[in-house]
Design goal:
The complex is a heterodimer of chains A (about 375) and B (about 170).
Chain A: E1 4-12, H1 22-36, E2 46-50, H2 62-66, E3 77-80, H3 86-99, E4 105-113, H4 141-156, H5 160-174, H6 188-193, E5 196-199, E6 201-202, E7 211-220, H7 221-227, E8 232-241, H8 255-268, H9 273-276, E9 279-281, H10 287-296, H11 305-310, E10 321-322, H12 327-331, H13 335-350, E11 365-372, E12 377-384
Parallel strand pairs in A: 2-3, 2-4, 9-10, 9-11
Antiparallel strand pairs in A: 1-7, 1-8, 4-7, 5-6, 8-12, 11-12
Helix pairs in contact in A: 3-13, 5-10
Chain B: E1 8-9, H1 16-20, H2 41-51, E2 55-59, E3 66-67, E4 73-74, E5 79-80, E6 84-87, E7 90-96, E8 98-99, E9 117-122, E10 130-134, E11 148-153, E12 166-171
Antiparallel strand pairs in B: 2-3, 2-6, 4-5, 7-9, 7-11, 9-10, 11-12
Classes of the chains: A alpha/beta (about 375), B mainly beta (about 170).
The structure holds zinc ion (ZN).
């Protein structure tokens, strides 16, 4: 296999409701990513793109609809979709295109426009549940998050205040991100006082519904060095899938995430992730989920994560900067694009280009992770400079 | 701001209000998709037993698991499952929520009971084998993880062979 680098990145603003179509959003992100490394679409040999449920757009097989905006016309183009895990999984998908030796360049672009679905994208999540044994109970996606959060808190004695610290930290960090959907600071109090959606989940424990797109450019070792003197290398990739009988898993611990993480760490030659990783971008659609995933990523001992969080271990200038981007909680959550936003963040951070969000001390290694489908898929990418 | 700002494209976001006020061009269509799902062999038997007031599971003799919902193949051993096993209609609450939002994101109204979803580990199935269902006849503030609950069945004549033949689980 050949070494693969990220050489460019671009994104649209994450917004509640965009005027642009999904295709137009994809185009903006792709064009920005190409411009960022001085390439033309003609320089790109393949396209890997991702977008989560077709239902949001009401266009079945929306891969072919999006392909033009992704630069996929007349090119070998593939779509990947594993729900929320799509954004990082698509990078892995693009990595294969280049690592295999089949292509020297590939654009990875992920898009989501959730605002088209009326009256609310949430309603379409009912269709991810089993049609016979679960859907007649009128489930909402909030149920499984709330129940997982409850199980996680109960197992370790974590409180709602503990979880709200993450919301406060990530949302306020996100204000520093130029693409963020937020510009107002929140406090733990604000989180606890916000509307109860599904106990123990309050409104501000949840990332917002968003529209947006993110793209990165991949290149093989040889070509990457011609494009930039600051390539960011894909050091390891991993993914894993647990059973879709989600109620039969113990929800307190993301086993699928642990397996995906070790697959990526082994490839990257990492034996002690807590020591080696400088930046972590765990998938945080809900506040508790960032902590849940830090444990799955082997970046915090089980049950100790809140203590470390309170001690500033995961701050922008902490031992492991957690979600310096602001994460989904702080930037926004256009499902598939949110995971790719984390890849782009590692790219900017590892090049020292992240502005106010920059993690100090010349970080060397970062990990991005996403999670989705019926809560059971995880994809992990380790990047280094 | 760092270098990255150059590669973020500007926003043109609009709000729900702009759409309702007709201030921007947009288009509307509604989908009309219906399905008749075959429930399959395992779930078919599960549903026919629910109609009779029983919960039935399936055992894999290789790994020894008694599985709910029942399945025709064991996903761990990747072989056909073996015996049908009747399990109890009691269990314990593995986790739960008190939900103020319906599936379509509409809010529970004043005076309306919030849905009380739970993962219930059914007695007689392998430990940890939970199913999604609802709780009832319990005050939300009294629900606890580890609480023992029992199925409340619809009257026999109202059962249709559906997961909703169990109205909910209540503490016992
Ligand atoms: Zn088995």
């Amino acid at each position: 296999m050949r070494d693969v680098a990220v050489v460019g990145a671009g994104m649209t603003n994450f917004v509640r409701r965009a005027l642009e179509t999904p295709k137009e959003l994809s185009y903006e992100a792709t064009k920005n990513a190409l411009d960022s490394c001085g390439l033309q679409l003609d320089d790109i040999e393949s396209i890997a793109h991702g977008s989560a449920p077709d239902a949001f757009d009401g266009i079945h097989q929306k891969g072919e609809y999006l392909a033009d905006g992704c630069g996929g016309f007349n090119k070998p183009t593939m779509r990947v979709y594993v729900g929320g895990a799509t954004g990082v999984h698509s990078l892995i998908h693009g990595w294969y295109h280049v690592a295999s030796g089949h292509f020297d360049t590939c654009v990875v672009v992920c898009e989501e426009k959730m605002s088209s679905a009326m009256p609310h994208a949430q309603a379409f999540f009912k269709t991810i549940f089993d049609h016979t044994t679960e859907r007649p109970l009128d489930p909402t996606l909030l149920w499984i998050f709330a129940m997982e959060m409850k199980r996680y808190m109960e197992t370790y004695g974590y409180t709602k205040e503990d979880m709200a610290i993450v919301a406060e930290k990530n949302k306020n960090q996100g204000i520093k991100h130029p693409a963020s959907q937020f510009d107002t600071e929140v406090t733990v109090e604000d989180v606890l006082n916000s509307e109860v959606m599904a106990y123990p989940v309050n409104r501000l424990d949840v990332s917002p519904v968003s529209d947006g797109a993110v793209a990165v450019v991949l290149a093989s070792d040889r070509v990457a060095r011609q494009i930039t003197d600051q390539p960011v290398w894909v050091e390891g990739v991993g993914w894993n899938l647990d059973t879709a009988y989600w109620a039969t898993r113990d929800l307190y611990y993301p086993r699928y995430c642990e397996k995906a993480a070790w697959m990526a760490y082994d490839m990257a030659g990492i034996r002690n992730p807590i020591e080696d990783i400088d930046i972590a971008e765990p998938y945080d659609p809900f506040d508790y989920k960032a902590l849940h995933h830090m444990e799955g990523l082997q970046l915090s001992p089980k049950g100790k994560t809140v203590d470390l969080l309170k001690d500033g271990y995961f701050d922008q200038d902490g031992e492991i900067a957690m979600c310096p981007s602001g994460g989904l909680m702080g930037v926004g959550n256009p499902i598939a694009a949110a995971g790719t936003m984390k890849i782009a963040e590692l790219f900017w951070q590892l090049r020292g280009e992240a502005g106010e969000r920059q993690v100090p001390g010349s970080p060397k290694l970062g990990v991005a992770q996403a999670w989705g489908d019926l809560m059971q898929v995880s994809s992990v990418v380790v990047m280094g400079n | 701001m760092g270098n990255m700002e150059k590669w973020v494209s500007g926003g043109t976001s609009v709000s729900e209000k702009d759409i309702k006020a007709g201030d921007i061009f947009h288009t509307f269509d509604s989908l009309d998709c219906e399905y008749t799902w075959d429930c399959g062999k395992a779930i078919g038997k599960y549903l026919s037993e629910l109609k009779k007031g029983n919960i039935i599971a399936k055992k894999c003799n290789e790994c020894g698991r008694i599985m709910l919902p029942p399945r025709m193949f064991c996903e761990l051993c990747f072989r056909p499952t073996d015996d049908w096993v009747y399990v109890e209609d009691t269990g314990i609450i593995n986790t739960f929520s008190i939900c103020n939002v319906h599936w379509d994101a509409s809010r529970v109204e004043e005076g309306e009971d919030p849905p009380l979803p739970a993962v219930i580990e059914i007695n007689g199935a392998t430990k940890g084998m939970g199913i999604l269902h609802l709780l009832g006849e319990v005050k939300p503030e009294d629900i606890k993880i580890g609480m023992k609950v029992k199925a409340v069945w619809k009257p026999e004549e109202e059962r249709t062979g559906a997961i909703t033949d169990i109205k909910y689980f209540k503490p016992y």
